[in-house]
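Private note to self, pasted from the team thread so I don't lose it. Backbone tokens:
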């Protein structure tokens, strides 16, 4: 069974957060990230084209695990499942969203930012979270502090992660992977510069491998 923990492990080092406003570009983008060594992507439900894009990627790029992101309303879980999403991501945590995820039996990565939010979600059985927004060095320090009280909990910092601070997060033992849009910038997607996106993905994977070789 595909659990959120397994999906985050597969996503290491980077979970691309994609904003797709043209279905014609969806498959090229997904293939470019896959070619760069990434295994999991998140298609955010922020554009009218997102659900169709997700569906097409699932059909055409079967090697990828594809999730639906920016889930902020309960009914979006049903829409995501109907489009073929294999997991869902929210920028925050609410009981209603958690209940909807459970009803749809969809692996779910809720967002948290504070210890009370982590505790509330842990009470519902969650062990993996999107840390949103990730705020540079302050968030690196905060996640480092979370190690003690939140044993066995892992995070996917997102919303402020860049090539420059990626390794600061990945070097923390409670960070499973990092999310972000920088790996597929809108300008490159618009230009269909797939080779450059593959290169960004490859570079992130190489950076993570180098980090692992040091430990
Ligand atoms: C998200 O939806 O997770 C964030 O908006 C992505 O933020 P980023 O553009 O800073 O990566």
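Design output:
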């Amino acid at each position: 069974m595909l659990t959120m923990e397994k999906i985050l492990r597969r996503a290491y080092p980077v979970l691309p957060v994609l904003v797709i406003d043209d279905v014609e570009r969806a498959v090229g983008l997904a293939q470019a990230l896959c070619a760069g060594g990434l295994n999991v992507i998140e298609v955010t439900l922020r554009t009218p084209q997102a659900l169709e894009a997700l569906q097409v990627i699932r059909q055409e790029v079967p090697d990828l695990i594809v999730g639906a992101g920016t889930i902020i309303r309960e009914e979006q879980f049903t829409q995501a499942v109907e489009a073929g999403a294999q997991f869902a991501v929210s920028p925050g945590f609410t009981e209603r969203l958690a209940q909807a995820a459970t009803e749809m039996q969809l692996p779910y990565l809720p967002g948290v930012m504070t210890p009370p939010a982590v505790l509330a979600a842990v009470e519902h059985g969650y062990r993996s979270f999107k840390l949103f927004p990730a705020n540079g060095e302050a968030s690196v320090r905060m996640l480092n502090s979370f190690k003690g009280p939140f044993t066995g909990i892992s995070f996917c910092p997102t919303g402020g992660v860049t090539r420059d601070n990626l390794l600061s997060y990945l070097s923390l033992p409670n960070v499973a992977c990092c999310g972000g849009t920088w790996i597929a910038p809108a300008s490159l997607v618009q230009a269909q510069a797939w080779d450059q996106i593959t290169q960004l993905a490859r570079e992130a994977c190489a950076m993570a491998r180098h980090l692992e070789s040091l430990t």
